Amino acid sequence: MMANIEKISTQQFFILLFLSRVFITLTDIPPLMGGMEVTDYLVSVPIYGLFLFISAIPTFFMAKSNTNSNILDRCSCISPVFGKISAFMYVAIFLYGIVLTMARFDMFATSIIFPKTNFKGFLIVIILACMLAAVLGIESIARGSVFVFVAFLGTFIAVIFTVTKKIDFLNFSPIFYNGSGTTIKSAFVSVPRTIEIAVVLMSMQHLKGNTRKGMAYWIIGLNVFQAVLLFYMIGVTGDYLKSQLFPAYTLAVVAEFGFLQNVDVILTSTWILCVFLKISIFLYMIKDCMKVLISKKYSNLYIFISTIIVSVITFCLNPEAYSINHLIKPIVPFILYSICAIIIPCIVLIYEKVKGVKIYES
Amino acid sequence: MLKFFRESMEKSYAPLHKPSISAQASKIRMSLSENTFYIRTRCGNSVDISMRNVDVSGIDGFFLYCDGMCNGITVNNNVIEPILKAENLPQDPKGKYDAIRDRIVGEVDVKELIDLEEAMQLSMSGFAIFFLDGVDRALAFSVQGFETRSVGDPITDVQARGSREGFVEHYKINMTLIRRRLMTPDLRFEIQELGVTSRTKICICYLADRVDCEVLCQVKARLVSAEYDVVLSSGNIQPLLDADKPAIFSAVGVTERPDVFCAKLAEGKIGFIVDGTPYALYVPHVFTEEFQSLDDYATRPYYATFIRILKWLSFLFSFLFPGFYVSMGVFHQELFPEDMLFQILSAEMQTPFPIMVEALIIHFIFEIMREAGLRMPKAIGPAVSIVGALVIGDAAVTAGLMATPMLIVVALTAISSFVVPSIYEPVAILRFLFIIVGGILGFYGIVIALGLLVTNMSSINPYGVPYTAPLLPATPAAARDTILRVGWKHLSKRRLETTKLNS
């Protein structure tokens, strides 16, 4: 029944995805990339945008052919077994996304927010809050994201405004001084971190408006934001950026706004809201996947079980796990991303082209 | 779990005793004694139920009415006397009955009844019911005349330049107050009875040319499906009209003012007047309406906008400020300017409690005083104020139990929370929650709680109009009358109906 599907506008949806992806950018760790000159980070942004656009082409075609049903409905039309396998892969990518986000946030928090403090309790509180938000539905999360977006934008503009006078153009080094290989690799590694493409594929039936246009604006917006952020980070911190675990945070630390001594607390707060939105939407997506994988009956139970699993993993996880994962196993997100954002949509598109299938009902 | 609670609630609202009398059993009999016996059996010896026996040209009859519910003079002068003094009545009971119905009593409205239960019900609504021996029907004369409160100033919804009329308890007077303001044939009133025992009249009001028919059907279905035993105020049916999901804020608007109520009807909303209560309800209701008042439209746009911004800031201040203060005091002292930090620190060092506990205690005491002030007799009001202000406020600081900055925070918060009194209840609870979250998790906990609150508010959508509209989702056309209030020229260009808010 189409009538029961929650509908949200594409603007709200892509604002949500923007905030979800932005958290990765804000907690980016340049030392992990190694060997890059600071200006090369800035160059890697458009390259990342290009790679992201290429990898999103199947999603564009999916949105062009049909927006009444999500990827799993269309997979199930090919074969119920294929639908279940696909659902399993999407559950895997979203669970991976949540765990990675929590690990990344844990690392950020234990090194920056509450050093020398056991932060696990707070992480569990965040996961529980996300669970409640996921139960309330995608409509509520997307509407909430607009509020967060306004807060985030306000804080970001305030930070940018206050650090503009501290930019030193001598901090910009010549590009590709050590060759272009690392820069391209950096851009390439960033693409699988954009799990939000899988969210787009899973949410097409919820969207009102032009999905392809929204996606295009989203990719452009992400790149512009990253470019502006990196420009300021390089301009203000220079080579110091390479030694910083979280340079975006350093930017907030040096910012002073009005009577407030520093605005890092406020900026960090908006980042936490980004984490909240990211995990909430991923939990909601897991629920949708589990409906295909098991049964449509216990929708909120899936969110609850996923929350328990994520909480247990987060509780057991070492804050260093994120960096370990990033250094040793970059192949995991790459495989998951390739399957969920490229291979499965391609299979669906090819099948529909061959069979001449045009319209689906979810 | 939720299902369990819902079922428990439904059970608790279920009628205590459903009428077990069949239509056949309650049919009016030919024999007057049988009818009398039935009524006496059902009503017992209730002293307010009067059964006055009369002789109508040699045939027995009786009047059934409820003392206090009908006008005694009207009953005597316009109903009983004309019947008793009637001449040239036919001899047979049926002929007499028809003559009385058609020509004898012409001053009051008459309704013919065939059911004793309906007859008793009408007698309790102020009708006088006339039974005649040998006739299996009865006549109900409309002679209602109970005491009602006269229309006066609304107590809870004060406007500086608005009307001085407020709703009263009797629904018919309220209907008149509305009709006087909306003299259009599109204004419709529909009556539904709710409550097996109370049989309370619920008047559904709407403008037929503006209402969303789907929403109208939805609310009617909700009322029909409700199984209440007693409905004594509009608050009883508010949960019935509210959102199905658990939410902190209510999706049902409440007003005591007929002018506000009419304005809502003009926006395509559906109103409910509950007999016996001066507070009318309306749906769909959105959050931004809490910050609007009729005075906004009586003042210059820039001032109205200023007042709106003031209200929004006060709302945020009223539940966030104590939490922020506690979190800054416990975790983020660096956010205070140095001089202020030293002042606060020196004051807080004098008190034996942690800052979070101190905030909770003072707010708790404030809530006790507020509740006492609300319920107590007016005569002892000043005494409570003196105790609150002098004993608790001044003495607590002097004794070193509370810090002065904390008292200032509480005072500012309390005043702010009364700027938008209609949402005081959720704000009071949120204030406590944010103090606890701020004290345990700091600023970061507060933002998580805030995110959850916004998500919760966004989920309220019982009639297809999001509670957070027109802000979330943003409706640019509505922006001119939400936080801003533009001039009449722009406002009157196009009427924005409620149903458009979901676009």
Please tell me how large the radius of gyration of chain A is.
20 Å
Write down the Rg of chain B: 30 Å
Poorly predicted tracts of residues of chain B: 8-19
User: Total number of β-strand segments of chain A?
Assistant: 2
Subunit organisation of the chains = heterodimer
Share in β-strands of chain B: 5-15%
Strand content of chain A: under 5%
CATH architecture of chain A: Up-down Bundle
Number of self-contained structural domains of chain B: 3
Poorly predicted parts of chain A? none
Report on the biggest sheet of chain B: 5 strands, antiparallel
Overall form of chain B: elongated
Assign an overall shape of chain A.
Answer: globular
Quickly name the level 1 CATH class of chain A: Mainly Alpha
Distance between the termini of chain A: 7 Å
Number of strands of chain B: 10
Major beta sheet, strand line-up of chain A: 1-2
In the CATH hierarchy, the third-tier topology of chain A is known as: Amino acid/polyamine transporter I
Major sheet attributes of chain A? 2 strands, parallel
Secondary structural class of chain A = mainly alpha
Explain the overall architecture.
The complex is a heterodimer of chains A (362) and B (503). By secondary structure, chain A is an all-alpha fold. Chain A has one domain: Amino acid/polyamine transporter I (Up-down Bundle). Chain A has 15 helices and two strands. Chain A has a two-stranded parallel ribbon with strand order 1-2. Chain A starts with 7 loop residues before the first strand and ends in a 7-residue tail after the last helix. Chain B folds into three domains: 17-142, no CATH class; 171-296, no CATH class; 299-459, no CATH class. Chain B is 46% helix and 12% strand. Chain B has 16 helices and ten strands. Chain B has a five-stranded antiparallel sheet with strand order 1-2-4-5-3, with helices on both faces. A five-stranded antiparallel sheet of chain B has the order 6-7-9-10-8, with helices on both faces. In chain B, helix 12 (355-375) packs across helix 15 (424-459). Chain B starts with a helix and ends in a 12-residue tail after the last helix. Residues 8-19 of chain B have low confidence and may be disordered.
